[in-house]
Task: structure prediction
Amino acid sequence: MDTKVWKISTEDVDSESALQKLKEIKTAITYGEVVGLPTETVYGLAGDATNPEAINKIFNAKGRPSDNPLIVHIHSIKQLENFVEINDSRVSALMEHFWPGPISFILPLKGDYLPSRTVAELPSVAVRMPSHAVGRKVLQFVDVPLAAPSANISGKPSPTDFSHVIDDLNGKVYGVIASEPADYGIESTVLDCTTFPYRIARPGAVTKEDLESVLENSVDAYQMTMDKPIAPGMKYKHYAPRQPLTIVEESVMNWKISEARNKKIGVIAPETTRDKIPEGVKFVSLCMDAADYRNAARNLYGALRIMDKSDVDEIYIYAFHRDEHSEALLNRIYKAAGDEIIKEG
Result:
C-alpha cells in the first residue's frame, strides 16, 4: 500500500480543509502509526513517543540501530513534566530564548513515561520544540510527545522535502505531510545539559557563540566522541549517497577529476566554481560562494540526493573552510564522506 499524502501548507494550516487532515493524522498516530512530519530542520518520522508499537515502527522503517536514541518533539514545556527533570534555571533560560527553534536539549529522564527503546535505554532524553508552523500545529493537535528522527533510510541523506520521504519510505510508513521544505536543511543542535558546562553533542544552526550570548562560559565545544551515543548522529556514518564521496579542495579539483579516468565524476560545490569544472562533469550547485554556509547547509542533502540518483561513479564535494559558522555543515559532510581531504601538496 502506498504511503498516504496530506497537503498542508503554512498558509492554510488553520483552514477547514487542514482541520480534516489533522484529524486523520491524529487518528493515525493515536493508533500507533508513524508519519512524515515537516520541521524547520529536516523532515521527521513521527510517532507517539509513549507507544512502544510506534517506536518499533520508526526503527523498522528506517533500519535504525537500536542504540541510536530518538529526539522527542513537544509543543509546550509543560509536556516535559511527565518525563524529564529540569532543576536548572540556566536550562530554562536557554529554552525560553531558543525555543521554538533548531535546538534539542538532553535532560535527565524520570519515571517510565517513555519506553526504554525511545531513549535507547539511556538515563536521559533529547527533547526539542520545532518552529515549522505545520509541524507545530500537528504537535499541538495530537497533544502527545512525538519521537521523530529524520524520515529517511538510516545512513542515507536526510530528507528536506516531502518528496524525499516518499523516495525512501513509500509503502513503509502510513503517511507523510506535504508542506514547505525545511528552512535550515540540517538537523538540530543537540546540547547535553546533564553535566556542566553543557556540551554540544551534535552541532547545528544554534552555535556555541549563540548559546554563550545567553549564558557566558556555559558550553563546551563539540567533539566527535562516544561508543555509546547520547544523541543521534554521534556514532554511525550518516547522510551518505551510494557512491564514494570525497572532500576535495578547489585548488586540486581539476587535477583530481583528470586523474579519475574512465569514471563519471560529479561535483558538489559553490556556484562560483562552476565555470572552472570541465565539461562532461555533473555539477550540482550548493550555494552562491564559499562563505554562504547557511545555503550550503540548506541544500546539502538535496544535492547528495540528486547525485545519488545520477549515473556518476564518484562524487567530489567542495572543502569549505572550517570555523564556528561552518561547523554544522562540515560535520554532515565529514559524516557522509569520512575524514580525508584531498588538498594541494
